[in-house]
Design brief:
Number of strands: 19
Strand order of the largest sheet: 3-2-4-5-7-6
Distance between the termini: 82 Å
Shape: globular
Strand content: 15-25%
Radius of gyration: 25 Å
Structural class: alpha/beta
Largest sheet: 6 strands, parallel
Bound molecules: adenosine-5'-diphosphate, ligand TZD
Amino acid sequence: MTTETQAQALSDGADLLIDALKLNGITNFYGLPGIPITDLTRRAQAAGMRMISFRHEQNAGNAAAIAGFLTQKPGICLTVSAPGFLNGLTALANATTNCFPMILVSGSSEREVVDLQQGDYEEMDQLAIAKPLCKAAFRVLHAEDIGVGVARAIRAAVSGRPGGVYLDLPAKVFAQTMDAETGRKSLIKVVDPAPRQIPAPDAVQRALQLLAGAKRPLIILGKGAAYAQADTEIRTLIEKTKIPYLPMSMAKGLLPDTHEQSAAAARSYVLPEADVVVMIGARLNWLLSHGKGKTWGGKDAKAWGGQKFIQIDISPQEADSNVPIDAPVVGDIGSCVSALLNGISAAGSGWPQPSADWLGAIADRKSKNIAKMAETLAKNPVPMNFHSALNVVRDIIKANPDAMLVNEGANALDFTRSIVDMYKPRKRIDVGTWGVMGIGMGFAVAAAVETGLPVIAVEGDSAFGFSGMEVETICRYNLPVCIVVFNNNGVYKGTDVNPTGGPDVAPTVFVKGARYDKLMEAFGGVGVHATTPAELRKAMEEAVRSRKPTLINAVIDETAGTESGRITSLNPKSAKK
Ligand code: ADP
Ligand code: TZD
């Protein structure tokens, strides 16, 4: 046999990994090259996969995670050993926390050396470190097991409650060879990776009974509902029952925020007043005050408000995590909502509507709050504040409802969530369950790559700094991303002073008057310095039209923010001043 025919007849670990992923419809890698994966990244590209190279693994990991959320296929993050792996871990843990399916594939050093702690290049027991931070962790030691490893990783990431998975590939596996035909046969095309989970009929009956007795029902939609892609079923349930609903941040747009049944502008009224609450793909965690306390009409911070809960969730362990759940409905959202709809349709005109008093009271509160907000938005202060700037963003999204909106910061997050209406499902992606900073540019890159749609990233100046170097990545791949940095000179705001009068500025303060737009210009993108709503509007319109990488440095009044935005109460309070 000549060397050439020999090479044709053999597959190595890198071939097998690429083929295993392609066989399962996965065509994008988000990663950063280096030993032992550099050649793999080249070969993936040569094999027709899209290899998006980042400047830091955390951003690649965040990109993979949100790709998973948007597509229901695990996003793949590829990192080098030890430090690269560790850089990817924050994203892996964040994906698991948020129920985003992703697989962190990391090269690692040789097992024998790691286990004897003999000091290999980038030595680390990565599998052990990853385990507590993800849903499942696997290691493949032989090329012939790559097919099984990839299949197990895919199933673990997307079945049941989705999450992060770690796949450890020691360097030598990439170079191991096997007969190409045997290799091909070792790969697995995963059949039905996220099987539907049909709710038990008695659980559905229990929920229907509780709902039928409600006078002041409320539906809460969470990002699990957005992920599930059961948009039609959810909308039908809401419109058929006339029940008011509240979208959690990433569920905004599942129905248009302008929908007459949205109770978002009456949130502080509906939570304590509702008698039966239907949770659809949302958890009663801190974002919903754990289902108790004053937010829910409880007499003190720990007290239950008296609401009854129906909770639709794929995880059988979620119910009762914070308050008693009277009617858990365990299954995938599409199947659960369809089952509820069947019961409601069977009741025909006998199905009770929410009381007119309830709907009237919500409509009243809504119109008052919306009018108040319109007044605030109409003001045109100099310098701009969050409201006058977001009034522009709100118009741009209204005119471009297909655009993806990425959002992080504290005030920049809270105000955007409440001011900028979303019109379509899965268009808003943000800091999620942890309120983590640093998702911005990773999410923006993956949103552009996975959807091809224009992306608008509204970023606090501090938030942007966590992933800001990826503007080079955005320029390199020429992605239609428009970053708007709300520059108020610091974390939360820019007005703190050092009480000692010493030369260091206060811990929350940045360089005043910084020009983030220049950063984008450094890599050939468009930089704009905007000090008025008119300048901001013009620059955003142009960015969306041209699809050119753009960064707008939007100058915001440095006194405008509050510490930690809406969650300032979570700062520990000391009696000491
Ligand atoms: P939010 O932050 O928007 O309130 P969470 O992340 O707290 O949302 O909750 C999402 C919930 O959705 C999780 O409990 C998760 O188990 C659930 N979930 C995710 N995908 C599905 C699905 N396809 N079917 C049912 N439940 C799902
Ligand atoms: N580090 C990480 C990884 N996540 C965090 N959430 C924080 C630190 C703490 N933090 C917040 O919760 S918001 C925020 C930090 C540092 C930045 C707020 O400043 P900003 O936004 O400039 O991004 P605003 O609009 O000025 O409030």
